[in-house]
Amino acid sequence: MSTIDRSTDLPMDGHGGGHHDEPYLSSKGSWLANVLNWAVTVDHKKIGVMYLFAVLFMFFLGGVAALALRLELLEPPRVIEGADGARRIVGQLFGADPEDVAAGNNIYNRLFSLHGIIMTFMFIVPSIPASLGNFFLPLMLGAKDVAFPRLNLLSWYIYVFGSIFGVLAIIMGGVDTGWTFYTPYSTTTDADHMRVFLIVFAAFILGFSSILTGLNFIVTVHKLRAPGMGWFDMPLFIWALYATSIIQVLATPVIGIAMMLLMLERVLHIGIFDPGMGGDPLLFQHFFWFYSHPVVYVMILPGMGIISELLAVHARKHIFGYRAIAFSSIGIAGVSFIVWGHHMFTALGELAAMLFSAMTFLVAIPTAIKVFNWIATLYKGSIVVNTPMLYALAFLFLFSIGGLTGLPLGALATDLHLHDSYFVVAHFHYVMMGGTVIAFIGGIHHWWPKMFGRMYNEKAGILGCVIVFVGFNITFFTQFILGTQGMPRRYADYVDEFQTMHVISTVGSWLIGLGFLIHLVNFIHSLLLGPKAPPNPWGGLTLEWEAESPPLEHNFHSEPLVKHGPYDFEKVVPPHCSEEDFPLPRAHGAPDPKSLTSFNG
Amino acid sequence: MMTSAISAMQAGMGAAATATPVQPLNLYHGIDGVTGRPATAFEELFFRSGGATDAAQAVDGLYMLIFWYSAAFFVLLMFLMVYWVIKYRRRPGVPAPVSPSHNTLLEIVWTVVPSSALLVIFFLGFWNYIDRQVAHGDAYELAIKAKKWSWTPVYHNGASTQWFLPTDETVDPVTGDVTKTIVDSPVIVVPEDSNIRLTMSSTDVIHSFWIPDLRIKGDVFPNRYTGYTFRTPKLEPGQPYQDHWVFCAEYCGDQHGAMAAVLRVMPSADFDQTVSGWSGALTGDKVAQVQGCFTCHSVDGTNMAGPTWLGLYGSSGTFDNAPPIDFKDENYIRESILNPNAKLVSGRAGMTSYDGLLSEAELDALVFYIRGLSDAGQKVNEELEAGGDGGEASDAETGDGESDEASGTEAAGDDAPSDAGDGESDEPADENG
User: Fold this and answer.
1) Which of B128, B215, B248 sits opposite A488 (nearest CB)?
2) Strands B187-191 and B260-266, sheet pairing
3) In sequence order, what are the residues at sequence separation of 6 or more whose Cβ sits closer than 8 angstroms to the Cβ of residue A596?
4) B290 and B413, same domain (yes or no)
5) Across the interface, do B250 and A182 touch by the CB < 8 Å criterion?
6) Nearest-CA residue of chain A relative to B171?
7) pLDDT band at B131 (very low <50, low <70, confident <90, very high)
8) Do residues B368 and B422 make contact, with C-beta atoms less than 8 angstroms apart?
9) Counting C-beta atoms within 10 Å of the first and last residue's C-beta, which end of chain A has fewer, N or C?
10) Burial B352-384 (b: 16+ CB within 10 A, else e)
11) What is the ipTM of this complex?
């Protein structure tokens, strides 16, 4: 299908330097030369790795804030009058003055805002596309690099620049707006300070990074597929990234505009959202969710793409319903633009609420189709339960709960009760963390040998995964019950009835922390002491497994020619693998699979 | 150790209330009595008990329908997943069986079947929602004023919140020590078994008025009226009242988590008597409670977001943006309420203005209440008393000890009219002095 005229005879150039036959991680001499080389690299792999460590660092920051939040919620602050008649405030961990409940609440509010802003804008939006996407999109397409390598580097520096603004605002004392920046609270809080401006500006800047990455990926997918690779020969991870990129390019400008208007109102006091100046606070919510709902799919679609890869490879099974999964990615991207109102059911009129509710149920359908296809993929597979596969299974479990609990939130009557309660908190953590983060961690394990050329310890990986899974359910399932029982979100304080569930949830959060700590130690151990990875440890069929581990600077020895589909496990022995290890499926009376084409890279 | 709120309640409630002990903070009661149907185990888990009204139970019913539908799907999917992972686990060297990777009929079925179910859920959700959005002609109109961080109901006769949630006492079984949890949430009274139409507005940021037991909430905006209708629960025979929590569900700042209120469902006769008895009564501490002053200001010296009122009157002060003053008088207090940023106390963040939110009488009551909380202010009061109007020294009482807020409030509440009378007669004297 590819019609691009490309001569494979031309020497591959464009990376500004020799050493093209060496692994991309090989040293360039002195440490200074290495730093310089990484700082100005246009290699998508290096940019992907830098993104990977940056977003994981942000995940760590946001995670520490989350643990602190849960710790605070162990006990509600209460004003107690003791037998001696003195009034004391107990149960406040963060107040500088133990009697000062307002100061403690203020710190709590800053922490949950910090958690939300870091996790959303600096971690989860860029997480999979910018790290694993950057690294593997060109490899999976059989390309040397993305379409615009310099733009890719620019996008990385915009991300760094934006993150610095964000972290600066946090160091200066943080903001208490929440990640949603609802007006008129966000335009009036901390009125004497630049922090809110800075963090909004950071979100504004980070949007450009997101747009540029999306643009780059769209062009790369259209133009740089290897010879022989049609649209339906692409791995499903690529389809997911493609759908993601469309949303990024179309929706992100809207948040840019909203953030710009917010800054104008704060700095120049132009009344756009603040009713005190003639503005409309609800307008901001429309602007905000017009971006922030589609961006939910920017977060989850790449995770879905990863799951398609993990399940197919580790079950050694052609993915079930390839086209259904591919089209459902595009379908989700399309419908995602017309459901933003379901974040505002308690504020909208009846007609708008009804329409948005109906659209919301529409978006559930392609999501359900994906889950059915993934489960069906397991049927008659050859399934190995290693860390990536375990994470894929955990994803199916958690994401299914996350998706199904979206139903009472999409239904108007039940949403009036559950809106802005802990039920919502639990729901989107099941989707964002149980979905995206679980897929991300699974994907990192899956591609770790390829990225760094070393294996990780499988037992430690499985242990970490099990602890994260158990801890996650303890932490967040209790929050569903808190929500239905009536616990509002963003409360530093709560009535005594809710304490038991909060204690259980907090204990769960410690387990999650422990699980991730195990993964961290495992990764560091692997980088320093891990055994060398073969080029194709899992027997994958997508093009990245034809490359060396770690890949060469130019990815492939020669431009790959696509002769089989990405999931033709029943027909093709994987590259770099022997048939003893990866026998082809055989039905009774079927011809010897050796007579079929064997593909050896 | 009864507090003003309790005594006020008992006064309003009459004999029925005194016979029944005041209920502690168990706000999830009285539910099963509505229909006589006990909550199922899962309803117990999710909601503690069924919804408080028929409409709320309809929401519970829809929730449970979605729950069972989801649970069935989930269990089926997870069963298949685990079963196949075990059954088709990889054995070294053993090839997998040949299997299909596509089945059009199956894919159509698993698209159409869940879609139809989603359509049903959508319609049920919409049906119930629209039923509750429609205003009932016979509804009682209740205005709700929201601000950081308090709810103020305004009843048909212009009366406003007078009651606050009582102190909860716990006795340590070992030591016998009594500790009291102090909750200052306003009590919003409504008649039983009637339609209530809320007309809500906010004076600052967005809030959201959530009654979890009734399974409904609505956002409250600073630039428009919003509202919804609900039917209040029926009381069981002999039940003096029924309490339900109200929470703010839209994040609104430091004390967002403390922005709670209690919806108290009363017999209609009690409701009428109570609300009509409220019009006119005005005391400084009640104004302060209604306006939510105590979320930031203490009267016992505790340092909160705003300066304590204990000893405020007559003290000296330094300001960020104004020259220091030696004696904080009535006009300083008045200015600090109406135009707080005119003199910003050093080290404080400032307050939102209450200009336009207080009537002149309320403002007077508040200023004189604060004055009574300091030695200097008491001296003024004593002088005024010596002057011959023989007013109660209830304000002075409030100031003399840390634990006396409650009893002071009680005293103030008991002879509220005379206290307010004090305020009015004091004013000219202060202006002259």
Assistant:
1) B248
2) parallel
3) A571, A572, A584
4) yes
5) yes
6) A83
7) confident
8) yes
9) N
10) eebeebbeeebbbbbbbbbbbbbebbbebbeeb
11) 0.90
Number of H helices, E strands in chain A: 20, 2
pLDDT tens digits for range A145-195: 999 999 999 999 999 999 999 999 988 988 999 999 998 888 888 877 889
| Residue B243 bridge partners (DSSP) | B264
Residue of B nearest to A104 (CA): B254
Q: B86 exposed, middle or buried (CB, 10 Å; 0-12, 13-18, 19+)? A: exposed
Q: What is the pTM of this model?
A: 0.82
Q: Which residues contact B409 (CB under 8 A, 6 or more apart)?
A: B3, B4, B285, B398
What are the structure tokens assigned to A7, written together? Answer: 């001569």
With beta carbons less than 8 A apart as the criterion, state whether A137 and A223 touch. Answer: no
Question: d(Cα A184, Cα B171) in Å, to the nearest integer?
Answer: 44
Measured in angstroms, the CA of A414 and the nearest CA of chain B are apart by: 6
Residue type, B250: E
Query: Helix, strand or coil for residue A384?
Result: coil
Distance of alpha carbon B28 from alpha carbon A304, whole angstroms: 41
The token pair that represents B51 in the structure block: 């919804």
From B107, B134, B161, the end of a domain falls on B134
The answer on B374 and B242 residing in a single domain is no
Residue B176 forms part of a structural domain: yes
ω into residue B186 within 30 of 0, thus cis? no
pLDDT of residue A516: 97
Q: Does residue B85 carry a pLDDT above 70?
A: yes
Which residues is B217 bridged to in the sheet?
Answer: B210
For range A411-423, the mean pLDDT: 94
Residues B254 and B203 in one domain: yes
Task: Yes or no: say if B165 and B5 are a contact pair by the CB < 8 Å rule.
Answer: yes
Testing the interface with B: which of A195, A416, A418, A572 to mutate, by most B Cβ within 10 A? A416
Cα(B121)–Cα(A344) distance, rounded to whole angstroms?
A: 19
CA-angle at A21, arms to A17 and A27, nearest 5°:
65
Greater pLDDT, B256 or B380: B256
- DSSP-based three-state secondary structure for A154: helix
Which chain B residues contact residue A316 at CB under 8 A? 90, 96
**Residue B408 to residue B395: CA distance in whole angstroms:** 7
Nearest CA distance, B427 vs chain A (angstrom): 33
Closest CA relative to residue A564, chosen from A234, A322, A266: A234
pLDDT band with cut points at 50, 70 and 90 for residue B384: low
Say if CB A184 and CB A276 are below 8 A apart: yes
CB atoms within 10 A of CB A505: 24
Judge residue B111's burial from the number of C-beta atoms within 10 Å of its C-beta, 0-12 exposed, 13-18 middle, 19 or more buried.
middle
Contact A190, A137 (CB under 8 A): no
d(CA A359, CA B213): 29
* Chain segment A428-471, per-residue pLDDT in tens: 999 999 999 999 999 999 999 999 999 999 999 999 999 999 99
Cα A33 to Cα A37: distance, rounded to the nearest angstrom: 6
Query: In the structure encoding, which two tokens stand for residue A565, read together?
Result: 């589909």
Q: What is the DSSP letter of A133?
A: I
Task: Note whether residue B383 is domain-resident.
Answer: yes
Given an 8 Å threshold on Cβ–Cβ distance, is B98 in contact with A481?
no
CATH code of the domain covering residue B76: 1.10.287
Length of chain A: 601
Range of the domain at B270: 140-278
Spell out the domains of chain A, with CATH numbers in brackets: 32-80+90-529 (1.20.210.10)
Query: What is the mean pLDDT of the segment spanning A491-518?
Result: 93
Q: Show residues of chain B in contact with A572, CB under 8 Å.
A: none
Distance, in Å, from the CA atom of B197 to the CA atom of A234, rounded to the nearest integer, reads 57
CATH code of residue B423: 1.10.760.10
Q: Chain A closest CA to B389's CA: distance in Å?
A: 33
Q: Do A102 and B85 touch (CB under 8 A)?
A: no
In this prediction, residue A586 carries a pLDDT of: 67
